[in-house]
């Protein structure tokens, strides 16, 4: 099947993301990238774990963290992971409009998560004077959690760009792999967050 | 409708149904992930268990949740994910060694 063929819901392939050579390559290359991302985040987690108690007499994790805000952020991101699954579900059924709507819901939830994170960092800086330079704990914390927040921001930008660029093009074998790979990235961000809320926040509360 | 058209239509309906069934599984795994998250938050906020129990317990819950995320949401349970799994698990192996190193032989 070539990328130019006129598509209908009947002849739309079962796995549109892997129906062309470009799509197959994108799929494989993206998983290689995710392997690299795993290593990147591992180095940040390892640094955090080694430095989390070196607070230089400043705020500790128990002083800072509050469960409700972390819980809401977790719910937002986990739900956004499900809504992007819905988007890909509709993509495979060749329902472009529904796919767009579910991606927009995903973007809104992701934006909510990011807003909470910005509020949280702002709160730490102003209420506790806990900054990147406060202590080794501060540096490790902001680097790890901030890097994840940066990934969320990139993911949002990616979704928005894809949706705008392909807004009137309709679904094709050219853009289906792009949507698929973007949703994989979004799930990976949630995977990293599972470890952040467990290792940083929950373990930080326990001490 | 010719036989061929009927076949195409039947194919399409079969695929719709298959996708719908898979989507149902996705919602079930979402419910399970939600449950695991709630248990982890509850275990920490309950304040009765010792850290020796809670830390391994919530780590285990996190790992299970990530497995759901990888195999269902990211479709790793589907066919044709051998190389993808190889790439990811190579990353996981290096990740494990990095964390292990920083927790054991690096001191600050």
TrEMBL record, chain A:
Look up and give the membrane topology term.
Answer: Multi-pass membrane protein
Keywords, alphabetical: Cell membrane, Membrane, Transmembrane, Transmembrane helix
Keyword Transmembrane helix in annotation: yes
* Cellular location(s): Cell membrane
Its predominant location is membrane
UniProt keyword Iron-sulfur present: no
* Pfam families membership: COX3
Q: Which residues form the Heme-copper oxidase subunit III family profile domain?
A: 1-205
Taxonomic superkingdom: Bacteria
Among Gene3D superfamilies, the record links this protein to: Cytochrome c oxidase, subunit III, four-helix bundle (1.20.120.80)
**What sections of the protein cross the membrane?**
28-49, 69-89, 101-119, 139-164, 184-204
SUPFAM superfamilies per the UniProt record, alphabetical: Cytochrome c oxidase subunit III-like
State the family it belongs to: Belongs to the cytochrome c oxidase subunit 3 family.
Protein name stated in the entry: Cytochrome c oxidase subunit 3
UniProtKB/TrEMBL annotation, chain B:
Chief location category: membrane
Q: InterPro entries from the entry?
A: Cyt_c_oxidase_su4_bacillaceae, Cyt_c_oxidase_su4_prok
- In its UniProt entry, the species of origin is given as Priestia endophytica
Coiled-coil region list: none
Supply the name of the protein.
Cytochrome c oxidase subunit IVB
Q: Does the keyword ATP-binding apply?
A: no
User: Which NCBIfam families does UniProt cross-reference here?
Assistant: CoxD_Bacillus
Membrane topology term reads: Multi-pass membrane protein
What superkingdom does the record give? Bacteria
- GO-annotated cellular components: plasma membrane
Q: Where are the transmembrane segments?
A: 27-46, 52-74, 86-107
Q: Which Pfam families match?
A: COX4_pro (PF03626)
Query: Which locations, inside or outside the cell, does it occupy?
Result: Cell membrane
Keywords, A to Z, come to: Cell membrane, Membrane, Transmembrane, Transmembrane helix
